[in-house]
Amino acid sequence: MLYYLFRFLEQFGISGARIWGYISFRALLALILSLVVSAWFGERFIKYLKKKQITETQRDEKIDPFGTKKIGVPSMGGIIIIVSILIPVLLLGRLRNIYLILMIITTVWLGVLGGMDDFIKIFRRNKEGLKGKYKIVGQVGIGLIVGLVLWASPDVKSNENIVLEKQGQEVVIKHRAEARKTLKTTIPFVKGHNLDYSRITSFCGKHRVAAGWILFVIMTILVVTAVSNGANLNDGMDGMAAGNSAIIGVALGILAYVSSHMEFAAYLNIMYIPGSQELVVFMCAFVGALIGFLWYNAYPAQVFMGDTGSLTIGGIIAVCAIIIHKELLLPILCGVFFVESLSVIMQVWYYKVGKRKGVKQRIFKRTPIHDNFRVTQDQLEADCNYLIKAPHSAKHESKITIRFWIITIILAAMTIITLKIR
User: What are the angstrom distances between the C-alpha of 48 and each of 41, 42, 45, 74, 303?
Assistant: First the structure.
């Protein structure tokens, strides 16, 4: 809203109004504002949650080898993150931008879905929360909406193969293809960087483009569901999901910026996506909200984000990557989420295989994988066969969290490097 106000005032020569047209100014202002909102609103919201006894028991001293009790810690702190994202975005973003609209819808949609899950857990005292099938329906629903909008909207276009050359002190466009809808997406470590979904569906003959869009929509649904669930599984230690997601958000903000900047897109030989600069504003608000939330969520946590936060931040990461055609980079960028999900899948599969044989067995001491590192040997079940018992000594929660952050920083750097490694 402020963007449109100052653009209007610019017509009358009001001093300083022009600066609101710069994406760098609005993005950094969104970062600062989201930090301020999360710090101010967070403190008051936590007091409200405590007053209303909206709390969740994450674990007790029998599970934590260091005897840390986290009973009575407020949950549904994801509302702090959502509010801290939406306020700066609504004030500073170009609200008619199709990409920004999709990000706002994703945030609200998954926030409501996660909120329903937390509501059932807390107020109805049902530890299972919202049934899994309803969660999947909600995730598939937003994935379907995003995929169909990106398919149908005339505002969703990109330029490929832009060639610039320097003439004196100016950089001019030597070649620029017409902006058009494309089914191409960036893939790592491959010359040309791009994979065309319609090439995969070439067996459909003259209908290959339509089939390619259908494949794209299915891919969007899978990515949104997988990443939101991965973020949800990663949210098991103080600061874990918030810290990892903030790092991922920085990387996505950089990728969105270079995709929206013609010179950088030409230099890196990636798709130039007009309008994607508004994602930079959104991702700065996203990062600021998560860092502000960490003020209260760092060990020992004063508040948990709950599914309200974890499902939302996972969906935001997925949709942003899809919009800038970087969804196939997510297995690298969100490697921690991927491993968390994979560890659970492997554990369940291995346990079921043993059950059919009449043997109690597990691969890891506990999953998701971050829990494996805080379990001591004397906490293992005597009648269960463990394939992997390492590490033999438990690590403190804060040490595990920071090491996961470091891994995510390395993965984020690797993701950005893939733009030059072909």
Answer: 10, 10, 5, 9, 11
Token pair belonging to 91: 């004030």
Size of the chain, expressed as the number of residues it contains: 422
**Which is it for strands 163-167 and 170-175: parallel, antiparallel or unpaired?**
antiparallel
Give the pLDDT confidence of 83-141 residue by residue, as tens digits: 999 999 999 999 999 999 999 999 999 999 999 999 998 888 787 888 889 999 999 99
Q: What are the respective helix, strand and coil percentages of the chain, to the nearest 5? A: 65, 5, 30
Residue 335 in this model has a pLDDT that exceeds 80 = yes
Spatial distance between the Cα atoms of 26 and 4, rounded to a whole number of angstroms: 12
Give whole-number Cα distances, 246 to 164, 182, 198, 290, 375, in Å. Answer: 33, 29, 34, 6, 27
Cβ burial, residue 52 (10 Å; 0-12/13-18/19+):
exposed
> What backbone torsions phi and psi does residue 186 show, to the nearest 5 degrees?
-80, 135
Q: How far apart are CA 60 and CA 5, in angstroms?
A: 52
pTM metric for this prediction:
0.93
What is the maximal distance between C-alpha atoms in the chain? 80
Question: Would you state the structure tokens that stand for residue 41, as one six-digit string?
Answer: 């609103």
H or E stretch including 164?
strand 163-167
Q: Tell whether the torsion through CA atoms of 307, 310, 314 and 315 is positive or negative.
A: positive
Rounded CA separation 117/78 (Å): 12
